[in-house]
Amino acid sequence: MILYTTLGTNDIERAGRFYDDLLAGMGATRVMELERLIGWSTAQGAPMFSVIKPFDGQPATVGNGVMVAIHVGDPTRIDALHARALALGGTDAGAPGPRGGTFYGAYFRDLDGNKVALVRM
């Protein structure tokens, strides 16, 4: 149902490098690049994840309680992507592991402080 998600950034080039490296582990590549936005997807027409410099010109800030979940599917890949996010300078916001039932997830904050979940349901 969701077509795209955006997270704010104050440094589009730095955010681009972070997510280029991280999302490559899922087979995602840049599918859109504008002066203030970069978007990645795993296939043409598939949902897109993007980072954006806010349109109003004000600094990007992190919303308390705001989180983007990226479906990864395989716990081994979740573990690897979480470790990669931390190696790229992200911070741990919840180690990989089961969270009840069939849910498996890991959480990190990117270089701008945005919270991202890597999940399998």
Explain what you see.
This protein is α/β, with parallel strands linked by helices and 121 residues long. It has a single domain, classed as 2,3-Dihydroxybiphenyl 1,2-Dioxygenase, domain 1 (Roll), CATH 3.10.180. Helix content is 21%, strand content 38%. It contains two helices and eight strands, in the order E-H-E-E-E-E-H-E-E-E. It has helices at residues 12-24, 75-87, and strands spanning 4-8, 29-34, 37-41, 48-52, 67-71, 91-98, 104-109, 115-120. Strand 2 (29-34) and strand 3 (37-41) form a beta hairpin. The protein starts with a strand and ends with a strand. The model has no long low-confidence stretch (mean pLDDT 95).
Could you give a short description of this structure?
With 121 residues, the protein is an alpha/beta fold. Helix content is 21%, strand content 38%. It is built from two helices and eight strands; from the N terminus they run βαββββαβββ.
- Let me know the number of strands: 8
Provide the CATH top-level class.
Alpha Beta
Distance separating the two termini: 16 Å
- Total of helices: 2
- CATH superfamily (homologous) name: 2,3-Dihydroxybiphenyl 1,2-Dioxygenase, domain 1
Q: Helices and strands, in N-to-C order? A: EHEEEEHEEE
- Record the strand order, biggest sheet: 1-4-3-2
> Level of helix content?
10-25%
Number of spatially distinct domains: 1
The structure class reads alpha/beta
- Give the percentage of residues in beta strands: 35-45%
